[in-house]
Design goal:
InterPro entries: PBP_GOBP_sf. By secondary structure, the chain is an all-alpha fold. The protein has two domains: 51-184, Recoverin, domain 1; 191-289, Recoverin, domain 1. The chain has helices spanning 2-22, 37-41, 51-64, 69-76, 84-96, 110-119, 129-139, 148-169, 174-184, 195-203, 207-211, 218-227, 239-245, 253-256, 265-272, 274-287, 301-312, and strands at 100-101, 106-107.
Length: 315
Amino acid sequence: MVTVALESVITFGVVLLLALVVSGSPLETQCPLIRSAETANRPAVWQPRTPEQTLYAYVRCLNDSSASIEMKIRWVMWQPDQSPESQCYVKCVSEDLRLYDPARRQFVPERFEQQARAFHDDPESDDIRPLYGDAARLLTGELPDNECATVFAKYAPFYAVHQEHILDIFHGDLRKILVTYKRLGSRVKQIGQSFVDYCEKRYGFVWAEEEQRPCPNRTAIECVFHGFRWITEEGSVNVAEIIRDFEGFGVKASELGQCQVADDLYWCLRALNADKLSAVIQQRNAQTAFYFDQSSEDEPWKSAVEFGNSRLNRA
């Protein structure tokens, strides 16, 4: 009797597992796990932020804020005040650029010097060197909490002294950003270029063809999904970002929340609904070409362009 019962349990377990595999359950991809070129080329340590990364952070944090248009106009002119909304905007950008680590409740001051050495015209000049020492002096130390006001209070004295340099090295000056984009070339997604197009040109694939394959190129998937921010630069799945992009496509957040493994993310999402995944990717990709409409007459984007042009026209 015990043997029969045991065999029944084993048989049921095998049948259940086969059913899950056949039905496309996102337990595990059947495609070989080969280290992709994107993973191989992705540094394990923090790298200076590109113009694409900074622009994404500035625009995303601004769009997600409930602040008034008047306040956002000040932000695009790099003039945040001490309001709660401005404090949270500064915290949001600092976290997105990995300049502030909420897990450790600390800024990472050496990254300001790394950024300057990568993008300042003369990182050894007497003009920029005080920033290095001030970052270590003013930004070092664990904060008591992660509140916006606490993070802002730590950062504000440093920003007040080095605003122009920070604007310069973090690609907030239109006089330099166009030159920087040109210098980086195919190593960064250009303004007006979608992320799929950037990845296709960099790694030599055609996304429409990869979508039709049972086992798409992992390099293609990882490049696009990192660009969409569905996979973070640390290699974890950003479920909140995925849920955000699937809004209106009729896929439950609880189902999307099952997809937690970066290596299997594409297959997990495709198993939920392949057609909807393709449609979401198409929509999100179109949004990546321009993070904001530079021809818009709406605020704060009109003021952002005017501010950029005013600096571009400086002697």
